[in-house]
Amino acid sequence: MLAVRHCRNLCAPAVFARHLRSTTPALRASVPTTTSRGGAVTDPSKYFDGESLAEHQARTRVDDPSNRTYNYALIGGARFMGASAARAIVVGLLASLNPASDVLALASIEVDVSNLQPGNCMTVKWRGKPVFIRARTDEEIEAATSVPMSELRDPEADDARAQRPETLIVLGVCTHLGCVPINGAGDYGGWFCPCHGSHYDTSGRIRKGPAPLNLEVPPHSFVDDTKIIIG
Questions:
Q1: Are 80 and 72 contacting, i.e. CB atoms less than 8 angstroms apart?
Q2: CB-based contact 46:81 (threshold 8 Å)
Q3: How many CB atoms lie within 10 A of CB 5?
Q4: Any idea where the Rieske domain is (predicted)?
């Protein structure tokens, strides 16, 4: 008799609701969406204080402190790993843009021209390119300064190319296809490129042939009368 009475009391809606609220979230989540009692379908949402079963399950999962700790740790770890990967990519990209150590070592060179005599030309290597340093005679200087600008394909005054009239410094690279011109040759006494027939005068300016521009003047400065820094 006591067992039957206890079973009847437990089956009462109010008693069942209290019993359901006292159980664990996992047990409450196992309640079916509908129940049949006496041939009628009963909505179990009234046992969750007006919440639907889905809302109640979602709330109990969010409110579980162990789940919150796990979610925060997972999200925080993912963000940290993403930030670390982005930083590594940026640092690697910036490092790749820096010039190599051998390039930095040749960024500038010092050249001794104490043995260079008027009319002669010496060649040095700077950044992998030949550089012509020519000690010009008075006749070569006169020939370079007396040319009208209207006759030049790439007009440029001689004093804008030579810091000191007696010393001209140009890259030994033809502006047509990058060949190395021959010093003291050609129709204008400067340089001649035998590959395609470009003629440069004693100021390194293009006068004849397919080259479109004058020989480039690299950045340079004079330390004194016998030393030049190129670069």
A1: no
A2: no
A3: 9
A4: 161-229
Structure-block tokens of residue 114: 């104490």
Q: What is the pTM of this model?
A: 0.56
Sheet holding 167-171, edge to edge: 121-126, 129-135, 167-171
Number of H helices, E strands in the chain: 7, 12
Catalytic sites, residue numbers: 196
AA identity, residue 227: K
Q: Which residues contact 207 (CB under 8 A, 6 or more apart)?
A: 151, 152, 153, 187, 188, 190, 199, 200, 201
pLDDT tens-digit readout, 198-222: 999 999 999 999 999 999 999 999 9
CB 169 within 8 Å of CB 156: no
Q: Which amino acid is at 170?
A: V
